[in-house]
Each structure stands twice: as structure tokens, then as C-alpha cells.
Amino acid sequence: MHDRIRQTISAIGEPDVPAMNWARRRHEQLTKPPGSLGRLEELAIRIVGITGRVPPEIRRKAVVTAAADHGVAAEGVSAYPSEVTAQMVQNFLRGGAAINVLARGAGADVVVVDAGVAAELPPDPRLVRRAVRRGTANFAHGPAMERHEAEQAIAHGIEIAEDLHDQGIDLLGTGDMGIGNTTASSAITAVLTGKPVAAVTGRGTGITVEQLRTKIAVIERAIAVNQPDPTDPLDVLSNVGGLEIATLVGVMLGGAARRVPVVIDGFISGAAALVATELAPQVGFFLIAAHSSVEIGHRAILEHLEKAPLLNLDLRLGEGTGAALAFPIIEQAVRVLNEMATFREAGVSGRSAPRETASRFAKRRLGYFHALDGGIWDDPFLHADGRRYRHIVSTDLDRLIAWAESRGISRSRIVRRDLRDFRNNRERVAAWHIDLGGPYLEIDP
Questions:
Q1: Angstrom distance (rounded) from CA 117 to CA 177
Q2: Cα four-point dihedral sign 20, 11, 176, 205
Q3: CB neighbours (10 Å) of residue 360?
């Protein structure tokens, strides 16, 4: 494996659990019934877990639209000739394509990448040139590309993601352009999900029923001829994939390594996500599914990746259009988390206690049990010196760390203190607490 790919995979971290716990706790305090904003709440928590930022912030966005040609187009699997790929690249650069319009509406940049267009493109400083070769070979008769070429295209995608992060991009989308690329995506999907070719192959650019039969037969023949190994994603990619798909794999890996959320578009981006998650399963947490495409193969991918799409608009264009449409939803989820008032800030009464008439002892007991369940228990008490002191207690260390850090309290203040679980024969339970000491402090728990 290419060193750049190996190093990038090793740099992909785990979700920031303390930050996610902070976001969950903040959502509990906002002026709304818990969970009432549904998946917007889940989305904001995921963004926090990916970026590790508390509070989260999205400043600049970009869609990476990678373009490349496919030799398999010679088999009559598309309604359009291969020349359209180069022509659409020029349209992207002029700002006249759907992705340009939708990206402008979302306040996002469009980064156009020549990942392997089979034509000489005129000079343009806005075009990112990363072509490993001028299109793939016809994989109906042999491998689409050499393994080292697939790896080099992935490395280029990693570099693109890293460069964009260094430029201040903190939300990435993936898009594509390439006549014949739904054929490659169907082949990848069939091999990596184990589903029959006919169950993951659709009409792409709008081919006829007869052309669809031809497309399915071509993919089945390609898989039989090349025998891609489903346990080796790079083998699958090099045998029946595409250069723009490989480049998007790199964008996903590079984004995850830099803790940048990556919003995947439709079928072709989904095929890239299959390869990326096979290479590095941990990258899945960093990917957000923008929408569910009309392409039946995309639905199979989302099911395999266990991704719930944000939108379902019957899209099948590609280019990154679905990702651009999803950007404002993600930004709104973050804005709600950051800008909505808490019950205390708004002077609004929160949820009633389980028993309003409960005695002080009963309320203390409820708080105690809440701590045993991983909640944050605010435990004030009156000292013999006449002053009120305070402990904050929880059996969930990550949650307590997030609570402390969100209030500027050092982790070193957190110490181990076992509790007794009276519900389970007074069994001792590992717990942690913060002794705030001194006079009672007015800190919202």
C-alpha cells in the first residue's frame, strides 16, 4: 500500500466522546422538549464528535468534484458519449452547472479536479490537475487500471483534502463527473456488498431497457474476467473502479484524518465510501450521507454503510449536488446547538421534577440514582462551618470530563469515589466526582 495512504489511515482518530457528551448535555438544557428536533440534534452531536470543537463552528465549505473517463463507456453503457466529461468540466469551471448554482446558494466553493479525463483540457488556474492517466481501460476485457495507479489517485485525493483543510475548509462534500461511472460504481457495489449485479445497477444517465440489460451483462462479464477480491478493496478499485472514485476515496480518508466532516453525495460518492470504509472502517463515523439517490445501487450502499440520508429528492445527477443541498441543514443543526437559549438563560421553567412534593431526602435519592445511571448529579451540602459546599458526581467519566471542560474546570479536579447501588444489594459502583470546595458555586449543572 502507498505510504501516504497507510499514514493517513493511521492518523484517523476516534470520535471525541467527551465533546459529544457535552453536546448531548447542552441539548438537554435548551428550551425545547428533549429530542424534539430529532435528527438535527443527532447531526450536531456527530459534528461535535468529528471535529472535537466545543462549541462547534463551520466557517468554510467546499465540494470536491472529481472528473474522469471510463473505458467501459465503449460498451454502450451510457446515453452520452465520453466527450461529455471534458465538456462538463469546462461548464463547471465557467460556473454554469447545477453544482455551481447549488454551491453558490449554500455559500460553498466548488473544487474541480481532473482525476483522469481522456482529453487534453485547456489551461485554467481553477482546475486542479491530478490525472494519473487519461481515463481507465475498458474493464470488460481486463483491469481498469494498475493497482499502483489506483493508489496514486487515492493519494492525490488525500492531498486535496489536506490542502483544503489548510486553507480553512472545515466541511467537505464529494461530487463526480464521468461518463460510464455508474457502471464502475455498480461493479464496486456488487463486489463489496455481495449483492447480484442486477440488484445494484440502474439506468444512470437515462438509458433504455435494452441498454440496461447490456450494462448488467457488461458488469457481470467484467467481474468474471477480472475476479476482483472482495476482501481487498484496492484490488476491487483497480479492477473495476474509476480514477474519480479513487480520488474521492482519498478525499474521505484525508478529511477524516484532519477531523473534517465529509458529506457524501450520491451513487458514485457512495461507491467511494464503500472502498474507503473497507480500507479504514473508522472513517465511517466521519461520513454524512447527503441524500438517497434514485439509483438502486445507492440504496444498497446506504444500507451496507448503515447511513440514514438527510434528504430524499429523487436526485441522480451527481456532481456533488446532494452534498451542496445538505450543507445548510448541517449548518442549521450547529446553529441550534450554539445559539438556542437554555432554560436558565431564557427564564423558562424546565421539566417538572418526577415528584414535586418529594422530600429533600427523596430528591437527593433521585439525584443519587441519576448519577448511578451516568447522569450528572449536583450534590450541594452544608458544612459545619456554616458554608455550602458542592460535589458534582457521575458514573460516566467521559460525561463528567465534558461537563468540567465546558466550564473551565481542569480534569485534575476529578477524582474516583465509589458509590453504593442500593438497587443491587448495595454493590459498589465506580464513580467520579468533582469537589468544587469553598462556598457554593453558581455553576449550571
A1: 9
A2: negative
A3: 7
Q: Can you tell me the distance from the alpha carbon of 414 to that of 394, in angstroms, rounded to the nearest whole number?
A: 10
**319 classed as catalytic:** yes
Element (H, E) at 214: helix 209-226
How far is 377 from 391, CA to CA, in rounded Å?
8
The separation between CA 341 and the C-alpha centre of its own chain, rounded to angstroms, equals: 27
Q: Fold for 3-338, please state it.
A: Rossmann fold (3.40.50)
**Domain locations in the chain as residue ranges:** 3-338, 356-435
Which of 151, 278, 319, 427 is labelled catalytic?
319
pLDDT tens, N- to C-terminus, the chain (445 residues): 789 999 999 999 999 988 998 999 899 889 998 889 999 999 999 999 999 998 999 999 999 999 999 999 999 999 999 999 999 999 999 999 999 999 999 999 999 999 999 999 999 999 999 999 999 999 999 999 999 999 999 999 999 999 999 999 999 999 999 999 999 999 999 999 999 999 999 988 888 999 999 999 999 999 999 999 999 999 999 999 999 999 999 999 999 999 999 999 999 999 999 999 999 999 999 999 999 999 999 999 999 999 999 999 999 999 999 999 999 999 999 999 999 998 888 888 766 544 444 455 555 666 667 777 788 877 665 555 555 566 788 888 888 888 888 777 877 778 887 777 656 655 777 888 887 765 434 333 3
pTM of structure: 0.80
